[in-house]
From TrEMBL:
It holds the Pfam family HTH_OrfB_IS605. Coiled coil: none annotated. Residues 1-42 form the Transposase putative helix-turn-helix domain. Residues 176-285 form the Probable transposase IS891/IS1136/IS1341 domain. NCBIfam families: guided_TnpB, IS200/IS605 family accessory protein TnpB-like domain. The keyword DNA-binding applies. One of its GO terms (biological process) is transposition. It comes from the Bacteria. This is Transposase. One of its GO terms (molecular function) is DNA binding. It comes from Ligilactobacillus ruminis. InterPro entries: Cas12f1-like_TNB, Transposase, Transposase_put_HTH.
Amino acid sequence: MIKTQKARLYPNRTMKKVLDDLCDYRRYCWNQGLALWNDMYDASLILEDKEFLPNERKVRNELVADKADWQYQLSARCLQLAVSDLGKAWKNFLNKAQPDWGKPQFKSKKAPRQGFKTDRAKIVNGKLRLDKPRGIKKWYDIRLKGAAFLKGELKVVSIYRENGKYWASLPFETEIEIKAKTGKQTAVDVNVGHFSYTEGQIKTLPNNLKFLYKRIKHYQRSLARKRKANGKKAARSNNYVETKAKLQRDYRKVANIQHDIVQKFTTELVNNYDEIVIEDLDVKRIQMSHVASKGLQRSLFGCFRQVLNYKCQLYGKELFLADKFYPSTQRCSRCGFVKTGDDKIGLDGNMKHKTKHNEYVCYECGATMDRDENAVMNLLALI
């Protein structure tokens, strides 16, 4: 089982330069590879010949053949792993079922997070050691914090720089830690502002997150107005740079709050339950009429599923995914009646029958219950 540990890096001046150069090189390799991939793909469409279709091997070989002298001073694995990730991104693009579906985009040097990957890093005497290219004389191990109990062989390490700080995600092989059996089952119904499960609710939209969403939207609009009024010159103004820095600061705060919510709830689930059911939702289609920053809130739902799946595998728990078309909200958990057409419950309840958004009234058996509790019971019935 692969377990990942996040650690803060404290490189000296020499290794800071090395990490910055590798971040830039990773971005360069990705952009060069993407441009080449796009050209090959367009050529295959124009010539109607599948032999011109790009793949990871073709793109990598051409980039290696065209390497400039300065590239040999940097890790060759940085290029190879960048092209490997590019191949995976294109594979996801051709599969719309992927939660992060979308065409691969070029990387910007202005992005707040810059990083690279390596599969040749080691932990030596409590420090991170990167592979040293040929001809380089000065090279140092990097002090790190947060991985004191790390044991096992490192896999592909992700290193990134954000807000002037350096971090590493250290994946390593570990034995599966089987948690004690509880004999209990639960289901999680995902809602805009909370997760509902058999023991109650977990808020996913606390007041501090709502405030940050509104402030982020304000900063985004402010930057958009500046760009519209001044074009490319806007980015050079001190006011624009200051506003953008505030926006990035709030993005980090949102990520930290969401991470805390997801980690605590998923840990509670795997500690207390042996079997867990969640919906296989298309998060991009979740309606959020009253959320200021819909994209950020949707990212929380995608993260929840990913983290829960990881922890269930790690601790030997069983995770069930309900089909995305399963009518957990519209079905009566007592008699099985499914609402259709004008009888369906929406965000505002049902106008035809004048029911509230948080209640479920069955038109077949007459049962009245909480909407979220009804959905949880329907999901539990799938086990």
